[in-house]
Amino acid sequence: MPVTVTRTTVTTTMSSSSGLGSPTIVGSPRALTQPLGLLRLLQLVSTCVAFSLVASVGAWTGSMGNWSMFTWCFCFSVTLIILIVELGGLQARFPLSWRNFPITYACYAALFCLSASIIYPTTYVQFLSHGRSRDHAIAATAFSCIACVAYATEVAWTRARPGEITGYMATVPGLLKVLETFVACVIFAFISSPHLYQHQPALEWCVAVYSICFILAAVAILLNLGDCTNVLPISFPSFLSGLALLSVLLYATALVLWPLYQFDEKYGGQPRRSRDVNCGDRHTFYVCTWDRRLAVAILTAINLLAYVADLVYSARLVFVRV
Questions:
Q1: CA nearest neighbour of 53 among 117, 111, 126, 135
Q2: Are the beta carbons of 316 and 162 closer than 8 angstroms?
Q3: Domain segments of the chain as ranges
Q4: Which residues belong to any copy of the MARVEL domain (predicted)?
Q5: Closest CA to 136 of 71, 52, 48, 74
Q6: How far apart are CA 157 and CA 163, in angstroms?
């Protein structure tokens, strides 16, 4: 009977004298006519239109508006670089592993555009009066959604399939690393005000958990992008398994402590939103304290689930050094 391979083989590249971990691919204008090339053109155009519409009427103010504008400009710039590299056949000269970089970026870009597509209309557009600025802002939101779908489609097209030999970042655990670091960054944005956690050692522990797990996941991503997985004192699969297990245990404590000390009156928490005077009025570009606490609790649960899935999927990978 034929045997079906259900695991994904991941290559980890040893450093060589040339410093290149991936084969050279000759560039050609025909790259733009391929499905992936056309998809990247859609990403380029949609992000360009989004920030152009907003910039033409100055329809961005405050931290949330700045975040959305940064997202569209950043995604446009990096997508343009990727297209130039592929058109010129410069993958081998690119300072990062081309086996891992495009899908890593596409996953981040999808999450960035998703956040902008949610944050921009809810914290800015709804407060604009009817007119040209509002129309441009609504159109920009629509193009941001298109960009999000385009980047997500690239991730779906280029991710690893069972039995394939590919880079780690194209696997499910690799993509989960991107999600974990992105969610951690959003958590950091919500806890940017120290008064949310400095009054309780347990809450300070939660912030330490978010920071430690973010740094470890970021290190795993950077090692793969730089083809430096061989510099670790232990094998890379062992590092990934230990990282996932440690993160699950740490996030489990944060999932218990953060809601307990933020929403239980016995521990100085605030159980009801109506009691938070900052949430009484609707403020443009502002998220009140109670909503920040709730958002962090939800994001903690999301990241815990991501780390659990990471731990499960990591055990199914087969690593081959080339």
A1: 135
A2: no
A3: 27-163, 171-321
A4: 31-163, 168-319
A5: 52
A6: 16
β-strand partners of 10 = 166, 319
Degrees, nearest 5: CA angle 293-299-304: 130
The helix (H) or strand (E) run that includes residue 10 is strand 9-12
Query: How many residues would you count in the chain?
Result: 322
39-68 as b/e: b if 16+ CB within 10 A: bbebbbbbbbbbbebbeebebbeeebbebb
Closest CA to 182 of 105, 240, 91, 123: 105
Which residues are paired to 321 by β-bridges?
A: 12
Q: Which residue carries 């993958």 as its tokens?
A: 91
Q: How far is CA 48 from CA 54, 148, 266, 267, 288, in A?
A: 10, 13, 51, 48, 32
pLDDT per residue over 77-106, tens digit each? Answer: 999 999 999 888 888 888 888 889 999 999
State pTM to two decimals: 0.86
Express each pLDDT in 234-281 by its tens digit: 888 889 989 999 999 999 999 999 999 888 778 776 777 766 666 665
**Those residues with Cβ within 8 angstroms of residue 298's Cβ, 6 or more apart along the chain or in another chain:** none
